[in-house]
Design goal:
It is a single-pass type II membrane protein. The chain is built from nine helices and nine strands. The chain has 294 residues and is α/β, with parallel strands linked by helices. The chain has one domain: Spore Coat Polysaccharide Biosynthesis Protein SpsA, Chain A, CATH 3.90.550. The strands form three sheets. The chain has a four-stranded mixed beta sheet with strand order 2-1-3-5. The chain is globular, with a radius of gyration of 19 Å.
Length: 294
């Protein structure tokens, strides 16, 4: 299908809410990557034994040909893709393409966007129940009054998007099926962002947070569940290699955070973390049973 056909098909929603079959809700794990998935052994171990509760989708460069064995959870999970560039609308196009493919499976209820440098911080059961029991979807949508927030707003986006509605957030999100449909069916906000949010306005930081704030702010937890380290400064977060993978490192990720979960204070704020280099794979596999739980 073309993107136009795919998004149209994925926008269908059942009018009768009671399913006429036994539907076990699944999490769609959507990987947005240039090519290889160097941390795939970590994810293979994470998914092991939980068939029927998850789906996997991979959007890579069109030229990349994955060579996973039939036994792999990533086997033939690449979707038809196109080139996507950081900070440009093609990045959001890729994310919508992932959502649309995942929406075609009626059992997918929750949708998580991940990169090839992401790892899970808990075992599958913990993450599944955390997401299943949440009243909200996890996407950051902040009103940033500075030059990298409101300073990127273009008045030409009005009246569809006003400055008071302009939001910023991480592109790594978790949303439910209703919000996923909202994103793939959009023909109102997309043209405005495509035309008026170009570098130094980075559309992947603003389009989804702003649109969902306008349409369904009451359904957003207004935070990401993917941990990153921005303490080193620069346009991109820190990358961690083999020397960084210690129990002390994970203690820093797990402890010292406060957030709200279902309107109550919680110390479990992050379910995933990034960015991890390929060299981190072996120490991650060694430390995972003790620290992560799988």
């Amino acid at each position: 299908m073309s993107d136009e056909e795919l998004l149209w098909r994925a926008s269908f929603m059942p009018r009768i809410k009671k399913y006429p079959f036994n539907r076990v809700p699944k999490i769609a794990f959507m990987f947005l990557t240039k090519g290889p998935l160097p941390l795939s052994p970590v994810w293979e171990r994470f998914f092991d034994g939980h068939q029927g509760l998850y789906s996997v989708y991979v959007h890579s460069l069109p030229s990349f040909d994955a060579e996973f064995p039939p036994s792999s959870v990533f086997y033939r999970r690449q979707i038809p893709s196109q080139v996507s560039e950081w900070g440009k609308m093609s990045m959001c196009d890729a994310e919508r393409r992932l959502l649309a493919n995942a929406l075609l499976d009626i059992s997918n209820e929750w949708f998580i966007l991940l990169s090839e440098s992401c790892i899970p911080l808990y075992n599958f059961s913990v993450i599944y129940h955390y997401i299943k029991k949440s009243k909200y979807s996890f996407i950051g949508a902040f009103d940033d009054p500075g030059p990298h927030g409101q300073g990127r707003y273009n008045e030409s986006m009005a009246p569809e998007v006003n400055l008071t509605q302009w939001r910023k957030g991480s592109q790594w999100f978790e949303i439910n099926r209703k919000l996923a449909v909202n994103l793939v069916e959009d023909i109102t906000y997309y043209p405005k962002f495509e035309q008026f949010c170009r570098p130094a306005c980075y559309v992947d930081e603003h389009y989804f947070p702003t649109m969902l704030t306008i349409q369904a702010s009451n359904l957003l937890a207004n935070r990401s569940i993917t941990w990153v380290d921005w303490s080193r400064g620069g346009a991109h977060p820190a990358t961690f290699g083999s020397a960084d993978i210690t129990e002390e490192f994970f203690t820093r990720i797990y402890e010292g955070h406060e957030c709200r979960y279902n309107d109550q204070p919680s110390s479990i704020c992050f379910l995933f973390a990034r960015k991890f280099a390929p060299s981190a794979l072996e120490p991650l596999l060694q430390i995972a049973p003790k620290v992560v739980g799988f």
